[in-house]
Design brief:
The structure is a single chain. This protein has 235 residues and is mainly alpha-helical. Helix content is 54%, strand content 2%. The chain has 9 helices and 2 strands, in the order H-H-H-H-H-H-H-H-H-E-E. The protein has a two-stranded antiparallel sheet. It is rod-shaped, with a radius of gyration of 64 Å.
């Protein structure tokens, strides 16, 4: 039995060192089973319970971890009257459980109790005392985060709307391409030459008085009629 317990203990510690918590859980569970033959007064029993609880909580198996921590606490405080340092080991695991559950105020309270035990047993300058003090500072920051103030920015004014140029259509393109004809003054129309002067200077028929354009009158059809020039009186 003793050799079996030692073998599983070594395997469990090696698995925890490599963060192989499922395998560590299996090994520590075997130590708990073997420790039942030793009885609760044997220190290997609470040690096995503490170790199994640690591997369980690091897998987020909080209910089981709390169950075995409670058993270890009961044995240490009521059965074997363990030393303050042995009790502080279980208290430190309880603080880690609270931390993983997000119960920061409870974790801080438990860590302060452990810090008091370490300061009395190891002294204020011991590495374990400094370690637990650092844990307390970290938990206090997490429990009371400093709010981040965002700078206030001046309101941004929207730009004034601009006139939108309509898209060109086929008609506007054709109008732009073909220039409008230049306004031209109407060409002066020369009046038809008057024939009055020409006709006034031509001879007239002695019979009808019509203008004769030949030696005879077209109106009277007389070809022997003498032409009378304007301004000449008939005799």
């Amino acid at each position: 039995m003793d050799q079996d317990w030692d073998r599983y203990r070594i395997l469990g510690e090696q698995a925890e060192a490599s963060s192989n918590y499922p395998y560590a859980e299996a090994m520590w569970a075997m130590t708990v089973l073997i420790a039942q033959h030793f009885g609760d007064k044997d220190p290997r029993t609470p040690y096995s319970l503490d170790s199994l609880s640690r591997s369980l909580m690091r897998q987020q198996k909080f209910t089981l971890a709390e169950h075995f921590l409670s058993k270890a606490w009961t044995i240490k405080t009521q059965v074997i009257s363990a030393s303050a340092l042995e009790i502080a080991t279980t208290m430190n695991l309880v603080a880690e459980l609270y931390y993983r559950q997000g119960k920061y105020p409870d974790a801080i309270q438990m860590c302060k109790k452990v810090h008091g035990i370490y300061s009395s047993s190891y002294g204020p300058n011991h590495p374990k005392t400094h370690e637990i003090a650092g844990n307390i500072a970290m938990l206090e920051k997490m429990a009371n985060p400093v709010p981040v103030q965002t700078p206030v920015q001046a309101p941004v004014q929207a730009p004034a709307p601009q006139a939108v140029t309509p898209a060109p259509t086929a008609s506007t393109v054709s109008q732009a391409a073909v220039p409008a004809p230049a306004s031209q003054a109407p060409a002066a129309v020369n009046p038809a030459p008057s024939t009055n002067k020409k006709r006034s200077g031509m001879p007239r028929c002695e019979v009808c008085g019509s203008v004769m354009e030949a030696d005879w009158c077209f109106r009277c059809t007389g070809n022997s009629v003498k032409a009378v020039n304007p301004g000449q009186q008939l005799t």
